[in-house]
Amino acid sequence: MNRDLRTPVIAGNWKMNNDRTAAKALLSDLAPLVKDAACTVITCVPFTDLETALAATAGTDIKVGAQNCHFEKSGAYTGEVSADMLAEMGVEYVVLGHSERRQYFGETDVTVNLRTKAALAAGLKPIVCVGEHLEDREQGVTAELVALQTKIALLDVTAEQLQNVIIAYEPVWAIGTGKTATAEQAGEVCGVIRATVASLYGKEAADKLVVQYGGSMNAGNADELLAQPDVDGGLIGGASLKADAFAQIVAAASK
């Protein structure tokens, strides 16, 4: 982390977990544990939990995010939710392009870009996920692939809009597998993302960009990962489902 340039961001991605009762209980437990944290704390919950989460976090230091949004404002898109619908509820953040969306639901770099622009137009702050598969890393194309994903995701995003974008580096081989990139690997790729943004928007804009690491960050490895100068926080999966574990990561980012 580089606190002189950026405020760290720890975001929990609950994925498809927790009904409303469980959501309220978890957030009630979490709120006092992250009070006055020296980082931004976000919890990204299933659509059905959004109203519960917004009510449970009112007056706390926890921000609320969704896990996806569509790129159209309205229309015949059964099962989808627009960015405007989320903004109208009071949602502030939205995760876009997660590897599970790409793997199971046909997301592409192009649709991630469309969703990113829609989110920004609605006043949301997108957390845009990029990352390579294991075979990509073994073939030595991680840097090229992640740079390409970053460039496409930001196509037609203005420099002003970029100030509301977070990019999360999520090596696909380290999501939900228990495997974690080494701190050096994570820092290197987050540096590639920042350099790519610098080539598009200039060094000053890149220096302000928050780049998270999102591959199985937990209480045990958070300190080492966050010590990397280009790792500005984490997009946390499994550890975000337990208040104590998530709070420990927040504490690491608050040092």
UniProtKB/TrEMBL annotation:
Keyword Isomerase attached: yes
EC class: isomerase
Residues reported to bind substrate: N13, W14, K15, G176, S216, G237, G238
Pfam families recorded: TIM (PF00121)
Protein's pathway: Carbohydrate biosynthesis; gluconeogenesis; Carbohydrate degradation; glycolysis; D-glyceraldehyde 3-phosphate from glycerone phosphate: step 1/1
MF term (GO), any: triose-phosphate isomerase activity
GO BP of this protein: gluconeogenesis; glyceraldehyde-3-phosphate biosynthetic process; glycerol catabolic process; glycolytic process
Gene Ontology CC terms: cytosol
Keywords: Cytoplasm, Gluconeogenesis, Glycolysis, Isomerase
PROSITE patterns for the chain: TIM_1, TIM_2
First and last residue of the signal peptide: none
UniProt keyword annotation of Oxidoreductase present: no
Catalytic activity, as annotated: D-glyceraldehyde 3-phosphate = dihydroxyacetone phosphate
Active site: H98, E170
General function of this protein: Involved in the gluconeogenesis. Catalyzes stereospecifically the conversion of dihydroxyacetone phosphate (DHAP) to D-glyceraldehyde-3-phosphate (G3P).
HAMAP family tied to this protein: TIM_B
Name of this chain's protein: Triosephosphate isomerase
Organism: Neobittarella massiliensis
